[in-house]
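DM from R.C. (forwarded with permission)

"hey, sorry to bug you on a friday — could you get me a structure for this? deadline for the figure draft is monday and I only need the backbone to look sensible"
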Amino acid sequence: MLVVEDDVTIAEALAARLRAEGFTVDLAHDGPTGVEAAVAQEPDLVVLDVMLPGFDGLEVCRRIQARRPVPVLMLTARSDETDMLIGLGVGADDYLTKPFSMRVLSARVHALLRRVERSARADVTDAGTKIVLGDLEIDIEQRRVSRAGIPAQLTPIEFDLLVHFAKRPRAVQPRERLLSEVWDWDVAGTGSGTRAVDSHIKALRRKLGADLIRTVHGVGYALEVGS
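My reply, with the result:
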């Protein structure tokens, strides 16, 4: 596991908590070092602060995701939703706003790792499986997506979210169910969580078409491509 945080006190506290739970943790304190560590160590998960010297956490996330998909939990000192939306847009899976409790951080980390493990099992189970719905084609084994023959580059969480919808075409999926079954959160329905869902839905619409997913106001979303 890699923690990229310029505040040494916070970084050491995060590392201590994660090591106490049995994880091996490396630390980096600026953007360039964070990217180098991610390349060298190939961590299973990155805890990444937004505000970093050198270049910021958004650029760190963008660079490490371009090399190898990895779960990223972003930390921001600002409650501005723009940070969260941009972070999710460059490949982060989840985010926490400072200050936060170590218990919450631990829960989010474990949820991300459970999701990755579940996704890996699903890839084995669905090996060779393709889902074709109208002009949408999903190759689960190769984790490739195209619509009308045009490939789309999805982040790991975007891909898993799309597969969840594609296995249940036209069925309305409440945000809380998506948080539970895609993000693997033990406790769903928080405001920050539902905003994360909304942000990833926007990303899927941007990459695959605005008509792909229908909003069911006050409830959630449904995949609208033909079967």
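R.C.: lifesaver. The chain has a mean pLDDT of 86.
me: no worries. The first strand starts at residue 2 and ends at 4.
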